[in-house]
Amino acid sequence: MKTAKEFLKTIFFIEILRGLALTLSRLFTHAVTRRYPKVKRPAQPGFRGLHALVRDRDTGKEKCVGCCLCAAYCPSQCIYIYTSEDEDHKKIVDRYEIEVLRCIFCGFCVEACPFGAISLTEHYEYSDYSRDAFYMTKERLLSNWDKYMAGQKGEGYFRKFWRPMSEDFGTPEKQATWRKIQNAK
Amino acid sequence: MLIMSSICAICFLGGWTIPQFITNTLPFLLKVPGILWFLVKVYAFMFFYYWVRATLPRYRYDQLMAIGWKLLIPLALVNILITGLVKIMV
Ligand code: SF4
Ligand code: SF4
For the domain that residue A90 is a member of, what is the CATH number? Predict the structure, then answer.
């Protein structure tokens, strides 16, 4: 059985009236909508946007050595690397291509690279009308670095968000490691 | 929505007229054309429409049925009954 109070509540639609009061009070407050193309939300640190190949400051070329670890690790298998050998038996990266449309921006490629050679920039506004625009060749990836990671930003990137694998090959302290079983038969 | 609001304004809010007690205190309001009062009432109803719609975007159908059958119809019947009783008594 309903109590008299509850009965009155249903008769006078108290809950609905309270809802109406709320919407009416919201009518006089500012809208929370961001006027997106005009007002942009700054990307948070460590945002995973468009890829860029790190340009080595000393040589002016890509840092990538073509070990294919990133391509092997990539869950959507969208990195294509073609390498060849030069006269001194050194590996050269002929083509390094990422099909950005298939990428899920997991950041595993950055994590996998032992040389800190691939990065994810904070750039995310690159919609286009053709598929070709999303097919990143080596040159485009390098120019992405120049465009979006120039200066301090690029230098701080790996130290800030990724354990610099290129400098520290040891096992991190917090990572679970295999431990030898003592007194094992 | 416009038609429904117009019908509501005519049936329940007196259409193009305004209450006597207002015109008694502010006689110059009589000079305002009736269509204006009518439009004001219609737009008030339309505002109410939007208001409810914004507050309750989707009233669930069973709840709607419950309100209609279990609440509003009994209330209307009780209303008829009480009105009739009052008429007989007084
Ligand atoms: S972010 Fe993930 S899906 Fe995209 S290229 Fe790197 S590893 Fe592949
Ligand atoms: S893991 Fe790094 S160095 Fe190896 S191919 Fe990928 S980007 Fe180049």
Answer: 3.30.70.3270
Residue A90 lies in a domain: yes
Residues A47, A160: Cα–Cα separation, whole Å: 12
Question: How many domains does one find in chain A?
Answer: 1
Q: What is the complex's ipTM, to 2 decimals?
A: 0.73
Domain annotation covers residue A124: yes
Cα separations (Å) of A14 from A126, A139, A176, B52, B74? 50, 65, 57, 14, 18
Ligand 2 atom 3, closest CA: A64
CA of A3 to the centre of ligand 1 (A): 61
Establish whether residue A50 lines the binding site of ligand 1, counting it when its CB lies within 6 angstroms of any ligand atom.
no
Pairwise CA distance, residues A18 & A21, whole Å: 5
Instruction: Determine the average pLDDT of the residues in A151-173.
Output: 67
Q: Is A182 contained in some domain?
A: no
The rounded Å distance from CA A131 to ligand 2 centre is 24
Tell me which of B53, B55, B64 to substitute to probe the interface with A (most A C-beta atoms closer than 10 Å).
B55
Chain A partners within 8 Å of B52 (Cβ): 20
**Residue A20 lies inside a defined structural domain of this protein:** no
Task: Give the pLDDT band (50/70/90) at residue A41.
Answer: confident
What's the token pair of residue A75? Answer: 């869950």
Provide the pLDDT for residue A182.
Answer: 61
User: Which chain B positions have a beta carbon within 8 Å of A22's beta carbon?
Assistant: 55
